[in-house]
Design a protein that fits this description.
Elements lengths: L12 H6 L4 E6 L5 E7 L1 H8 L6 E2 L5 E2 L5 E4 L2 E4 L3 H36 L3 H40 L5 H15 L3 H34 L4 H15 L1 H6 L8 H23 L1
Parallel strand pairs: 1-6
Antiparallel strand pairs: 1-2, 3-4, 5-6
Length: 276
């Protein structure tokens, strides 16, 4: 698949000149719509895109996603992935990367703390201890937010598959792009709250619809209609089905004759009592 866009026109020339040995990767949503660009070696680009899209290999050896086809062509990477899903997964990956950076900085601060203690510098040790704790908390916050966005991305993928992505959801993703640029976790947190609220509303609507459909299909029919239908079916089926019906007991011929004889005997006894 070829694109009509020249990758050299997507980035400043001075920036391209500095990327000696690396390649320009153009991320496309379609052949005419660009999602973004990346500069780097193949391994770096693959690392950045890791977990952003789900790859699988076809029997022909092509790399594809569950959403659509991904084609690697020269220094292009063409991805047919919805913007909102790509941006969510990319944001989760970026937050996870920041969590690792903070974790690394925490270890560095702890090492500086140890060195300061060895030198007997209590005040410097206090500063490094505070820095280490702060970086630890930042790492945990980034990690929690990354996991939350990743979970939302999974629900978005399901919604996209079912064609249930609402305009409100797409608006939240666009708003989150600016929040991610400034790494404003409080704003990202609020946007995730809005996102989950949209999903809750969607779930409530689905549950209400399913409940209404269930109510209309599972209400008990009036008993007299049920009995009438059973009797009608039994009449059409004849005695064989009637013998199986608890309410339609059929006496055997011998039993009927015995019952008639008993009635005659009772009549004779009653007549004798009246004569007396």
């Amino acid at each position: 698949m070829s694109t009509a866009t020249n990758p050299s026109t997507l980035l400043p020339l001075e920036l391209i000149d500095k990327c000696v040995g690396s390649r320009i990767w153009v991320i496309m949503k379609s052949e005419k719509e660009i999602v973004g660009t990346l500069i780097g070696f193949d391994d770096y680009v693959n690392m950045v895109l890791e977990d952003v899209v789900e790859y699988e290999t076809t029997p022909e050896g092509k790399r594809v996603t569950k959403l659509d086809t991904i084609l690697l062509n020269g220094n292009h990477i063409t991805m047919l992935v919805p913007d909102h899903l790509f941006n969510l997964r990319f944001a989760a990956k970026e937050l996870s990367r920041n969590a690792k950076k903070c974790e690394k900085m925490e270890k560095e601060e702890k090492l500086k703390l140890t060195n300061a203690l060895k030198k007997g510098n209590r005040e410097v040790a206090q500063v490094h201890a505070e820095n280490a704790i702060r970086k630890k908390n930042e790492s945990l916050n980034y990690l929690r937010m990354s996991a939350r966005i990743d979970a939302v991305a999974a629900r978005v993928q399901t919604a996209a598959t079912q064609k249930r992505v609402t305009t409100s959801m797409q608006g939240v993703v666009k708003a989150m792009e600016s929040a991610m640029k400034s790494m404003n976790l409080e704003k990202v947190q609020n946007l995730m709250d809005r996102f989950e609220k949209d999903f809750e509303d969607l779930d409530v609507q689905s549950a209400t619809m399913e409940g209404s459909m269930s109510a209309t299909t599972t209400l008990n029919a009036p008993q007299h209609e049920v009995d009438s239908l059973i009797q009608e079916a039994a009449d059409k089926a004849g005695l064989e089905l009637g013998m199986e019906m608890p309410a339609a007991q059929v006496e055997a011929p011998g039993s009927a004759k015995a019952s008639v004889a008993d009635n005659d005997e009772l009549s004779k006894r009653l007549a004798a009592l009246r004569q007396n």
